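Regression check, zinc ion case 61:
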Amino acid sequence: MAEFDNPYVDEDPFVRAHFDCLDCGGKLWEYAIQGQMVCEDCRSVFPSEHVFDAQISHPAD
Ligand SMILES: [Zn+2]
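Current build output:
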C-alpha cells in the first residue's frame, strides 16, 4: 500500500457516517483515510461512493 500524508493523524480515523449498512441496516462508520465505510454490526465494507449513491436512490425515511 502506498504511503501518503494522513490528514487525520490527530483525529479518530473513524467518523460515524449518517448512513445505514446496505446489508443489515446497522450503523456505518466512515473509514476516512480509505474512502470506505464499515458496518459496526456485520463488518461489511463499502466504498463511500457506493453508499452515497444507494442512500440517495433509496432515502432511509
Ligand atoms: Zn451491516
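Comparison notes: The helical segments are 48-57. The longest helix spans residues 48-57. No diff flagged against the previous build.
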